[in-house]
Design goal:
The structure holds two protein chains of two kinds.
Chain A (H helix, E strand, L loop, with lengths): L1 H25 L11 H24 L11 H24 L1 H16 L4 H22 L8 H7 L1
Helix pairs in contact in A: 1-2, 3-4, 4-5
Chain B lengths: L1 H13 L2 H19 L5 H8 L8 H26 L8 H12 L3 H35 L3 H18 L4 H15 L2 E2 L6 E2 L13 H20 L17 H23 L4 H16 L12 H16 L1 H7 L5 H12 L8 H4 L1 H33 L3 H20 L2 H19 L4 H24 L6 H4 L1 H32 L1
Antiparallel strand pairs in B: 1-2
Classes of the chains: A mainly alpha, B mainly alpha.
């Protein structure tokens, strides 16, 4: 766990440095007339300092009582696949439209993430889609993407 | 007697059949959006705002206000049953509410939430009715230095209450402030951290951030653990709190109400800050602070009372000063302006029907919510009792659509998914999300008040120490820091002898 936290705190330090440099570029200004980078710079400096303290502490004292358990490779792969499908599913909204894209995404979620039988998967996907469509589109009037592909064929 | 007479006039307006119907509708929609993860009162009010244009101003505001305080009631249900806050003000309810549910005490947690919300909401309303003018005058004494110091105090108090690490909590607060600065700087007009993306010019939305950090990350953690966990295997029973529950929660309810009321009045405070601070205070004054987070009734009663009381109190600066205390009040301000009504000191005299009609409708709404919510809890439980393999995709789609519906923006959905991954990593490494969210909400205000104070004092930091209210807030902040360091050192000195 010490290694995970060392990497995490080092990443925070890098992030703080990047934000600090960008804030400086935006303009620190002065105390009388603070610039747009004034507050982000102060926040980044504080974040960097705190991360450095935490890093030194982690290196010197090792894992603490409240530390997390870290990551497992198999879990990360599962999370990566799920997130990939979510991103692709949402990207498909603009291409094939909300209804088909969400139906495909739901099929994946019900079937692959949670191994249910195909009949249940299809019924659950259809019901979930119908419920969300009625609530968001019919009752709340949300305008969801129709999909460029259908517009192309219609024209 | 004038106030009583005016309030009766308000009831005459609120009790008109149309207004009763819209009040009921607002309360129901509010509870629904509060219960359903992925859709908050801000999104629902934004979506329904155009629908109110055909109604009279008082009717429109009665319904929109109903959505707001209805969501405060409903938000706790999902926090307790699914560990996903229905809206941001219910974040703290997750900590003990969900633990109570896991211990088979979901009914008691939901019951104390409903009654606590009603009591706090009604007390908050009485406060609003009786002391609105003098309180508004007092809040007028607050200048930028006072607001800055108060908000700093809120952030530090919140970081202090986190059960893991003060350093990590403060790191998250800094991260939240940085995220809050993304977009156009209101003072200079320059774009910050947008990297050429036009979608970032308006900043990162609160809804995608919260839904990602709390909704999607929860799903991801559950993906790891498999689907053995179901939301409920036992019946939710005993919705009426026992006498022992009342005795145990009575001071927490009262303290939460008072804290919520005062913080609700202050711009930038609102229900979110109120629930955080109330929880922190309750933990501090408790005889058994170590039990907080393990499922104790005070940990549910206090933040729920605070957010409901704050929700009512937030109307004070809006109705008397025309100053929105939070984003929902800003939406209400917009709605009033769209209806040709300018909120401010003259609202009470120029539009007493709106001022007192809305207040009277809130008394009715609180009663409606209590009467409706206790029987409806069974319905929400039935909905949420659907096995997790069926619930998970629904929650994901709700989060996605909830994020999208705020501004019909695909970018918001991607931000939400991105924050889902960030939230997952944070959960795994025990970085706390609440300080991040609070800092994100308060960040732009902190920046504005900080800059204004420095400009006002011509670059002198003494402005924060020479004004009494600001000095008190900063002293409390410093005391918390000192206490945190001292208690950390004490723990070490206690541990060291054992190791040697």
């Amino acid at each position: 766990m010490r290694k995970t936290y060392t990497i995490a705190y080092a990443a925070w330090i890098l992030f703080a440095c990047a934000v600090g440099m960008e804030s400086w570029r935006l303009g620190f200004g002065g105390f009388v007339r603070p610039g747009p980078g004034f507050v982000p710079f102060l926040a980044a400096t504080t974040l960097g300092a705190l991360s450095l303290i935490a890093l030194v502490k982690a290196l010197l004292t090792g894992p603490e009582k409240g530390d997390g358990k870290g990551f497992r490779g198999a879990d990360l792969l599962k999370i990566f696949i799920a997130m990939l499908f979510l991103f692709v599913g949402v990207l498909l909204w603009n291409v094939i439209g909300f209804i088909p894209a969400t139906f495909l995404l739901l099929l994946f979620l019900f079937r692959c993430v949670e191994p249910l039988g195909w009949r249940r998967v299809v019924v659950a996907s259809a019901l979930t889609l119908a419920f969300t469509h009625i609530l968001f589109v019919v009752l709340l009037g949300v305008r969801l993407p129709q999909g460029r592909i259908w517009t192309y064929f219609m024209n | 007697m004038d106030i009583f007479y005016e309030l009766m006039q308000g009831f005459a307006v609120a009790l008109q059949p149309t207004n009763i119907f819209y009040c009921l509708l607002g309360c129901l929609i509010g509870t629904l959006v509060g219960v359903l993860p992925g859709l908050g009162p801000t999104a629902a009010m934004s979506l329904l705002l155009p629908a109110t244009f055909h109604a009279p101003p008082v009717t429109a505001i009665i319904m929109l206000a109903g959505i707001y305080y209805g969501a405060m009631y409903g938000g706790s249900t999902t926090s307790i049953l699914v560990n996903i806050p229905g809206e941001a003000a219910s974040v703290m309810t997750c900590l003990d509410g969900y633990q109570m549910a896991r211990q088979g005490k979901a009914g008691r947690a939901l019951g104390i939430c409903a009654f606590g919300s009603f009591i706090a909401g009604t007390l908050g309303l009485i406060g609003l009715t009786l002391v609105a003018p003098p309180l508004a005058k007092f809040a007028l004494r607050f200048g930028p230095p006072e607001y800055f110091s108060l908000m700093c105090m809120g952030l530090v108090v919140l970081s202090f209450l986190t059960s893991t690490s003060m350093i990590r909590a403060l790191m998250m607060a800094c991260f939240g402030v940085i995220l809050g600065t993304v977009g156009i700087d209101t003072v200079s007009g320059s774009a910050r951290f947008t990297f050429g993306f036009t979608e970032l010019l308006d900043g990162i939305g609160l809804v995608p951030l919260v839904m990602g950090l709390f909704g999607i990350s929860e799903i991801l953690v559950n993906l790891e653990q498999g689907t053995e966990r179901e939301i409920f295997k036992t019946k939710v029973k005993g919705l009426l709190p026992t006498l022992a529950d009342w005795v145990q929660a009575r001071w927490a309810l009262l303290r939460g109400t008072v804290i919520g009321f005062w913080l609700g009045i202050l711009p930038g405070g609102g229900a979110v800050l109120a629930s955080f601070v109330a929880y922190a205070v309750e933990k501090r004054v408790s005889k058994y602070p170590e039990k907080f987070g393990t499922g104790i009734i005070e940990g549910v009663a206090s933040p729920e009372a605070a957010n409901n009381s704050a929700a009512q109190a937030a109307f004070i600066p809006l109705l008397t000063l025309g100053l929105p205390a939070n984003v929902v009040m800003a939406l209400l301000l917009g709605a009033l302006i769209l209806h040709g009504v300018t909120p401010g000191p003259l609202l009470m005299t120029q539009h007493p029907d709106i001022f007192w009609g809305v207040i009277a409708s809130m008394y009715l709404g609180n009663i409606m919510l209590l009467v409706l919510n206790l029987p409806l809890i069974g319905l929400w439980v039935q909905l949420l009792r659907i096995p997790y393999p069926y619930m998970m995709p629904l929650i994901i789609i709700f989060c996605i659509l909830g994020s999208y519906s705020v501004a019909n923006s695909m970018a918001d959905v991607f931000f939400m998914l991105l924050f889902g991954v960030v939230g997952y990593i944070m959960k795994k490494l025990k970085f706390d999300s609440p300080p991040l969210v609070l800092a994100f909400v308060l960040g732009p205000l902190v920046e504005y008040y900080f800059k204004s104070s420095l400009m006002f004092s011509r670059g002198s930091f003494t402005v924060f120490f020479t004004r009494p209210i600001s000095l008190v807030c900063l002293s409390i902040t410093a005391a918390i820091f000192a206490w945190s360091i001292i208690s950390g050192l004490r723990q070490k000195t206690k541990v060291l002898p054992r190791e040697t």
